Amino acid sequence: MNNIFTGSGVALVTPFDASMQVDFDALKQLVEFQMDNGIDFLVVQGTTGESPTLSADEKRAILDTVLETNNGKLKIVYGMGGNDTAGIAAKLENGLNGVDGILSVSPYYNKPTQKGIIAHYKILADSTDLPIILYNVPGRTGSNMAAETTLELAEVKNIVAVKEASGNMEQILQIIKDRPQGFGVLSGDDNLTMPLILAGADGVISVVANAFPAQFSTMVHASMKGDLVTARKAHNSLFDITKMFFEQGNPAGVKTALSHLGIMDDFMRLPLYPIDQKLKDRIKRKVNEILGA
C-alpha cells in the first residue's frame, strides 16, 4: 500500500469558547480556511488538537464536523494513538467512517523497547484496513523510534508513512535513504520542512499552517517542485513566527495568531495555559508583518 498523504497537511487545532466548550462554528471556519488556501490533507485530533482533554463524544462530534465541512474535498487523517495497545486496537476494529488514514503516535510514558514499539504497531495494523502513519515525537513520548524500527515497520502492508518529529536530521535522512518504495516521510517540525523535502521527504503535518495555510503550502509545493527561490522566501518569512508559536507551548502560540486573524478565540483547556502578553504582542506584530498589514 503506497502513501497517499503528501504535500501540505495541517494538524488542526480545536477551538473552544469562553465556557471551554468546543466552538463548532469556529471549527468550520478553520476547515474552510484550510480548504481555500492550498492545504492537501487535514489531520484531526493530533496533539495540536488537544485530544487528551476531549471526551469520546466531543472527538466524534469534531470529526463529524470536519467531515461535513470538508465534504470529500481533502483527505482526512484521524489521530488515534496511546500507550494501551489492546485498547487502541479495539477502537480501530470498530471502524471510522469517512476517514482516509490514521496517525498513531508511538506509545508514550511506558517507554517501550524498540521491539515493543514494533509489536505495538503490528497489532494496530492488523486491526484496521486503513493506512497508518507512524508518529515519532520523542520530546513528548519519552522514547525515540529508531530509524531501524521505522524501516522494519515500513514493510507492513498498511503502514504507509512516518511523521518524523525527532529533530534528528541524520535519523530522518537514514529513513529517507533506506525506505521501501511507496513509503512516505513527513516532516513533524515546521522549520525543518523545506530542507527535509529537498532531501526527499514527501511533505509535512504542520502546526503553523493553521494560521498561514497559503504561505506554508506555497513553501511546501515550491520545495517539492525544486523552485528554491520561492521555497526559501516562504520558509524565511515563516521561520521566526514558527519559533514564537512553540516558545511557550503548542497550541497556545498558533491559537493567538488565529484569534488575531478573527478565525477563533485562543482558549485552551487545562493543563495547557495561555502565553504571556509580551509573546502575544510579538506574535500579533509578526502576523501583521507577514500579511503586510
What can you see in these coordinates?
This protein has 293 residues and is of the alpha/beta class. The chain has a single domain, classed as Aldolase class I (TIM Barrel), CATH 3.20.20. The protein is 45% helix and 13% strand. It has helices at residues 24-35, 56-70, 85-93, 114-126, 138-141, 147-153, 169-178, 193-198, 213-225, 228-247, 252-260, 277-291, and strands at 7-11, 41-44, 75-79, 101-105, 132-136, 159-164, 184-187, 203-206. The protein has an eight-stranded parallel β-barrel with strand order 1-2-3-4-5-6-7-8. The longest helix is centred in the C-terminal third of the chain and has 20 residues, at 228-247. It is globular and about 50 Å long. The termini are far apart. The relative contact order is 0.14. The model has no long low-confidence stretch (mean pLDDT 97).
The tally of domains stands at 1
Number of helices: 12
CATH topology: TIM Barrel
Name the CATH architecture.
Alpha-Beta Barrel
Q: How far apart lie the N and C ends? A: 45 Å
Key terms:
293 residues, alpha/beta, TIM Barrel, eight-stranded parallel β-barrel, 12 helices, 8 strands, 45% helix, globular
